[in-house]
Request: fold
Amino acid sequence: MPDWKALLDNEFDLFEPINLAQRLVRISSVSRTDGEVEIARFIANYFIDNDIPVEWQEVDGRRANLIAEIQGVLGEGPVLLFNGHMDTVPVGTGWTYPPLGGEIVHNRLYGRGACDMKGALAAMMYAAKMVVLFAHSLYGKLKIVFVIDEEEENAGIREWVKMYHTRGEVIDYAIVGEPTGLNISLGHRGVAAYRIEVRGKSCHAAVADRGLNAVHYASLIVDRLERKRRELLRFEDPDLGAPALSVGKIVGGVAPNVVPESCILEVDVRTLPSFSLEEMERVLWETAEEVRTKEGVSFEYTITQCIPHLPPAKVSRDIELVGLLARSIADIPGEVPMFSPFPASCEASFLVEAGIPTLIFGPGHIEEAHSANEFVPVTQVVTASRVYALLALRLLGGE
Reply:
């Protein structure tokens, strides 16, 4: 059996994935702009230049997912998917480094999307180049699916999943390259949002006792929701984290001298396979009713879901991919395979729902995503690329 680590180390160029990451960061690819097509073309050209066949999957008639495939010469075998998204959030303000400069300072590559997730895209791209070198000794295939619109409504991954089912393909395992700090994440929590509207009675502030102050009662709901958030910690899943809620937006009142008739709260909620969206919604209703009962005031309220639920996803630690990924991490000097929850949500849930066991593993830390001076450690980009390549070679090489 080949010594895949030795073979890979003999071919691996430490600088190419770094250079690729810089070039990707210098392409503005904000979701739902022409940059999505520009970055897809750049990646497609890289694959074509390295003898990797590509497919252009149109989305919404004007944008496209990019699909690449490396077929093992030895015939049928397992199929591994590398998945990531090409779009980013807008640049925003507050930058010290040029947001599209791709500058490297003290081991950090700065730029919008460096962490989320162009570092991982570069690592996967170069890993694919390494896999091609050994295709003559591999079974099965490596599939790469880079999608658009992850930062908006997940139109790209939805379109690809439709095609996956239509074609009757079978993919055995997948890796999503979201930033986990090179820790292994077995899934993520679900996410949705709710709007709570509290309605009181308006009047002149000079005779405030004649009204019902909606902002006041909404603030009591906020306070009680914070207590509920702490109570939810007891339902923590060791692999995903705890179910959670957070009030992210409050809108109420029209003027200082008017008792507000209405106040709207928007609440982010995070769910688990063991703590469903229905249970979280019940927490919201119970909280509002507890406030109304305690205050003895018949203010009115409504609770409606305002962002669709992206469900949670979780796979077992016992699947083959976990062991292979852990071994591949351990083979990189200085690295120790560790598990940690991925605190955000991502498109792993679409893959798991499609029947593909999926892990989340990538360079960078989610805390840096979407921030000013976003960065990814360049050493993590290199390590991720070595791990991706070694994992693919071991799975497809029959080790």
Remarks:
- The first helix runs from residue 4 to 11.
- The two ends are 7 Å apart (CA to CA).
- The domain at 4-187+312-396 is CATH 3.40.630.10 (Aminopeptidase).
- The chain is about 35% helix and 25% strand.
